[in-house]
Amino acid sequence: MYPPMKLSLDELRLRTLGAADADLLVEATGEESAAALWGPRPAGPYSSTDARTALRAWDPESAGPVSFGVLRGSRLVAAVGLMPSGERVAELAYWVRPGQRRQGIGSRAVTAVTRWAHEPAGVRRVWLEINPDNEASLRLARRSGYRFEERLPRHCRCWTVDDPERDGWHDCLIWVHDLDAR
């Protein structure tokens, strides 16, 4: 279980999300046509049922994944997910609302959650999976202090169809932020 988080990023607030935040998620993903952050099948927009189900899976009281919302006023503009993948190791994922992209929100949130994951959460190694064609995510990883580690061929699912046997898969670049390597 990760400790709760509340941080200020100037005009933005970053805090742990829970099941009570389903309406925020529904509103935020309403204009999303691409994959979003939450749930076993990452896609938007979300219905109220989809949002509640997804946020329950990201329960901050469990030892599993936790989701952090980036809010401007009462509006969810981005989110960062931290998913444990071993002892003191976690994957980090991020999503920025379509109308809020290219404003530095993602890199500010990723940097803040990475710092928080290392201390006070005690995660030594945080890693990102990035599609090699996603130039914006590659820039974000560099700006946030991550370093390229390896390329995994056909590692990430495209989620264009529900059946994994018929779905497409793409290479994934692993970028890391490792306290032990510093």
TrEMBL record:
Show the InterPro entries listed in the entry.
Acyl_CoA_acyltransferase (IPR016181), GNAT_dom (IPR000182), Ribosomal_N-acetyltransferase (IPR051908)
Segments forming domain N-acetyltransferase: 12-164
Q: Which Gene3D superfamilies match?
A: 3.40.630.30
Query: Pfam families of this UniProt entry?
Result: Acetyltransf_3
Recorded protein name is: N-acetyltransferase domain-containing protein
UniProt organism field: Rugosimonospora acidiphila
Taxonomic lineage is: Bacteria, Bacillati, Actinomycetota, Actinomycetes, Micromonosporales
